[in-house]
Amino acid sequence: MIEDILTEWWERLQTCQSCPIRKEQNKGPTAYTGTVASPLMIVGEGPGGVEDEYGVPLVGPSGQLLDKALWSVGITRDRVYVTNIVKCRPKGNRTPTPEEGRFCAELHLAEEIRLVRPKVIVALGKVAFQFFNGGPGSIMRSRGHWLTYEGIPVMPTYHPAFLLRRTGKDLVESKWQVYYDLKAAVEKAQAMDPTYVFKSEEPTALLAMYEANRQARNIKW
Questions:
Q1: Is the pTM of this model over 0.90?
Q2: Between β-strands 147-149 and 152-157, what pairing exists: parallel, antiparallel or unpaired?
């Protein structure tokens, strides 16, 4: 399901052996979900177990929470481009380090962004935030404040995995913060591309959509 402008990029990504994560017992690089036509790109951290199985980002528990958050601000996953800083699953579902994120992003995400040419980017979590920030910083202090990457406005916010670890009042507060961050991002993207339709009539069934991809990644030769 790779769109034409990304074919050569994807072919290079599939053969990448440039960092140790590629050898950490994963099934190889993951691609993206959504469409290159979207003016909004969402960048997460790295694939987990479900994402490694299906070959696409944010389709496990964190992705399902992201889908709900996006629906609340008028977006379905088929209408927004979603990718990751780190393309291969780190062993044990660990969060990639900022250094690993920067290394992989400079190799692959930077080119991906140049090809897709989003008008607005949402950075999910510390690793994505620090790449777009150009160095260390606190996601808790910086979320909700615009950054700029190669002339593109970037909104940092919490990763859904962070929300899954919160409870009680902290969870409620964090969910509202993510809501307002996403709302700001989609409003800016709409202002820059007023004719684009961000929401399909029904939520996107991502696991069903990428089932053939999962089967292909799990073929044992």
A1: yes
A2: antiparallel
Q: Which two tokens stand for residue 158?
A: 């919490």
How far apart CA 171 and CA 155 sit, in angstroms, is 20
Residue with token string 């036509």: 37
pLDDT tens digits for range 84-101? 999 999 998 899 999 999
Sheet holding 81-84, edge to edge: 81-84, 40-44, 120-124, 152-157, 147-149
The answer to whether the CB of 127 falls within 8 A of the CB of 87 is no
Give pLDDT tens digits for 10-23.
Answer: 999 999 999 899 98
Question: In whole angstroms, what separates CA 191 from the centre of its chain?
Answer: 22
- Nearest to residue 43, comparing CAs of 97, 104, 123? 123
The full length of the chain comes to 221
Nearest to 107 by CA among 199, 7, 16: 16
Q: Say which residues have a Cβ less than 8 Å from residue 188's Cβ, sequence separation at least 6.
A: 119, 120, 153, 155
Tokens of 116: 């897709």
Q: Hey, what are 171's tokens?
A: 């969870």
